[in-house]
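Here is one chain, start to finish.
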Amino acid sequence: MKPQRPVFSLETVSLDLYKLEAYSDSTLFLSSAITLTLNAQNPNKVGIWYSPSHLKVLDDGLPIGTIRIPGFLQPAHSSNVSVEIRALFPCLNVSQIVAEASLQDDSRKNMFQMKIVGDVGAHLWLFHIILLKIKVALECNISVDYKELTMKNEVYTTGVKHHTVCFTTLDHMVSFP
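Its structure:
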């Protein structure tokens, strides 16, 4: 029987931390930490052990973030392995992203294009023994429609003063220095 590719699907996305900085020229910067929960499925007769990895997130070839993937085991014939990965974006120029997306043709208007690149170490795992080590080069293009992004709680901007943005959520007041 020929080996099959493992399958990964996105289960949840959680915004853990964010900071907005607004400047007098109306430029808005966003720093954030996001947790993504993936469901991993392995239809093969052998398990796969993945080494911890760091992937780069690129916008027009420039690094804008990092994705940290922990080491994890995907057992043989598994269909329900949850893996939490972290995406860190230290300083995104939101104003530039929105401006560039608005210049796209109608089919891609409001779309933010990113690329994820990096290497992931994969090891075949049988009877608790690593049989073969391989390195997988990952290159993935992602399009995000920023108009479709929603949050569980509505957020309202209440003011910008001295480069500090204040938000009111449905639950409480949040301020970012």
